[in-house]
Amino acid sequence: MKNDLINGVPHDDYLVAVDGIPTSEHLGFVEALKMGLKLRREYPHSDVKVRETGTSTQTADAIF
User: Fold this and answer.
1) Per-residue pLDDT of the chain (64 residues; tens, 9 = 90+)
2) Does the residue 18 lie in any domain?
3) 25 pairs with which residues across the strands?
């Protein structure tokens, strides 16, 4: 968790990946989760993950 400040507000960076290929990066978990769910509907047979940037691949994954 980076917890950097943007305009005085702490935030975390999250990455959305489809089949291991990063597709987008988001400042909040909710936005990343929304994008992950949208991609999951578009690609139902693909592996879609939301991951906190800067963490191990075995921690902090949300798999759809």
Assistant:
1) 455 555 555 557 999 999 999 999 999 899 999 999 999 999 999 999 999 987 555 545 666 5
2) yes
3) 15
